[in-house]
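Design job #97: recover the sequence.
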């Protein structure tokens, strides 16, 4: 098995030509927790048209939850979303959310085995290893560890990475009829956690080796969601938060964590002074966290993330969707 530094060196070798070729500014469209329900699903082609029409955007990131938490997790639904993703004129990086696999045990979701749905998600959306969805672009991923959804790329001397961390306590919320995670549920989580921690370390190592100006991490889970915390649904995030804090502090330069999950736009610095949820995390004031707007909340918008080789490496603004129907 490769050591983390060997993996990082490999990643850096692949990223350096890309980073060196980048100059100026570019923009990434970031969205999540959409489409939710029949109205948004019907208008999803219009959302895709909006992203295609923005000439500043040259990549798209979807932070997961491609359906609401109370609708069926059917093969047909997944195929419908994949068809719309394929219409994107820019490369798309998608990281799964809990609604499309973890929570599919719910009766109103179809009473599926979530692990079977995770396998289907990977079959439908991650069938092309080392390539993006939308317009195909070569990309680094963690297929070697069975996590093809973990992606890494570089643009404008910024390293961007997605990490498969989901709500519902990172998949450990008990399934319908159970009071604790099943053995297979725990095993999947533990394997994914090991891969995620290695991926986070490799992301920051590659950023250092390429002298990146900033790091962007994207995931579905809101690891500081007050509602989840009150329900005891943040315990599984402890090692993830501690690793991100450690790596961000060591990196010293700007780090942006973007997530969905809790649906309301938020911008904060949750690791400036780690709170009671994660008391053992080191302080990392250079990390900013942004939660994108989602679900049926108004206004409906997406985040335009600007990457630059001069001045501030990262900036962002909210852009409304043409369709405000929810």
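Job complete. Output follows.
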């Amino acid at each position: 098995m490769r050591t983390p530094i060997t993996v990082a060196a490999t990643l850096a070798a692949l990223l350096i030509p890309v980073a060196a070729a980048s100059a100026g500014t570019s923009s990434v469209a970031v969205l999540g927790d959409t489409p939710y329900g029949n109205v948004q699903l019907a208008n999803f082609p219009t959302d895709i048209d909006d992203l295609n029409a923005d000439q500043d955007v040259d990549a798209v990131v979807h932070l997961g939850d491609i359906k609401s938490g109370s609708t069926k997790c059917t093969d047909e639904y997944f195929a419908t979303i994949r068809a719309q993703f394929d219409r994107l004129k820019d490369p798309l990086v998608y990281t799964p959310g809990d609604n499309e696999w973890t929570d599919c045990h719910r009766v109103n979701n179809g009473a599926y085995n979530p692990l079977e749905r995770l396998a289907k998600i990977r079959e439908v959306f991650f069938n092309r290893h080392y390539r993006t969805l939308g317009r195909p672009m070569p990309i680094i991923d963690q297929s070697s560890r069975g996590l093809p959804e973990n992606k890494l790329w570089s643009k404008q001397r910024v390293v961007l990475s997605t990490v498969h961390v989901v709500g519902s306590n990172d998949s450990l919320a008990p399934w319908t009829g159970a009071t604790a995670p099943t053995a297979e549920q725990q095993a999947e989580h533990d394997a994914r956690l090991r891969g995620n921690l290695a991926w986070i370390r490799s992301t920051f190592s590659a950023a250092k080796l390429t002298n990146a100006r900033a790091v962007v991490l994207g995931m579905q889970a809101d690891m500081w969601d007050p509602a989840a915390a009150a329900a005891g649904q943040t315990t599984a995030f402890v090692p993830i938060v501690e690793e991100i804090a450690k790596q961000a502090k060591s990196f010293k330069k700007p780090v942006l964590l973007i997530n969905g999950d809790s649906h309301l736009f938020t911008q904060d610095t949750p690791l400036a002074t780690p709170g009671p949820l994660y008391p053992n995390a080191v302080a990392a004031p250079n990390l900013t966290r942004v939660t994108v707007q989602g679900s049926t909340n108004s206004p409906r918008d997406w985040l335009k993330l600007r990457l630059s080789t001069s001045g501030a490496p990262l900036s962002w603004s909210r852009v409304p969707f043409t369709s405000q129907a929810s």
